Amino acid sequence: MKILRLLFLLCLACFIIPFEAKSSVLVCDPFHIDFTKPLEVAKQAVWGNTNLTATTGNGLAESKNCSGNECVETWIKTAAYPMHCKWRTTYATSFNVKLVFASGKTSSLLPPSITSYVRYSPDLKHWSSWIALPNTSSPSKNKTTEPNVFSFNGGIQIPRIASPLYSDWWDKYRKLKGAYASEDEEALVSWILSQDPSFFEKEIPFIGYTQLLFEVTFYGQDSLKGIDIQRITCIGGTCVMPPQDASLQDRSFDSYWNFRALTNTPAFP
Fold it and tell me: Of 142, 118, 147, which Cα lies nearest the Cα of 132?
């Protein structure tokens, strides 16, 4: 099943890339949020209901004893995850998300109710609207012995109508700085904003960061153990840098987009 899911995501990632893009590298970013490790999870996620507490071994659960069909509603928001890579922007990406609840922990006949969303930003200040991810869950065969897993799969893509203005600025920058200078898109974005500080208020032409949101209803003694996230992205339009220009040599695909509109960006925007 894992192989089938990976093949599905690879197909989805390739499908959502615009046909004119010259894809060269497929990158998979795994993220894991472990609610059984309170000190670590404080840097990875935040939730809106103060009656829920993350504890060692138990995970995220109601801090008082719940029974039957009592429910607690909350939202859970992840940190903002930067995209690959520092020097090249991204226009589409896909997600495979799993929320894992502990087995045999609930006395309720109702499973947790979950909806999942994603949004994107170029600079951690300007954000798209929240976009729903389809629920692709299959019920556990044995709720008393198997973890209750909820799956969400889907992708996001920048519409082509959002790209022309950014492309125009890119052409101007290339003519001003030289052909290879435009291969450093963080520098390009800084230059665009020096000319037009309100640029991202008009349009968001690429994906610099992604953030996930979950709206969850806990029933009975439900306990959320963790969230597993796989983000698959095609990075395209790369080229070979001139060897004589040392400033343009760091083109590692292990680097991440790092442009920020504000110096003191909140951990959970």
Answer: 118
